[in-house]
Design a protein that fits this description.
The chain has 55 residues and is an alpha+beta fold. It contains one helix and three strands; from the N terminus they run βαββ. It has a domain of 27 residues.
Amino acid sequence: MYVVCPQHLDEAIDEFVEVFEMPPDLYLLDKVSFSDWTAPHFCDFCSRPPVYLVV
């Protein structure tokens, strides 16, 4: 699972496919919520705010 900014979306997808050998599901963080999970404040690859959840 990755939370990423728009600039790192392709990199997150590539890493996901390399690890899991299948395409990920993509979600906009502002459109999803989970009762036991809060989105991080920073992209997994940089210090920008994340926009996408890649799972």
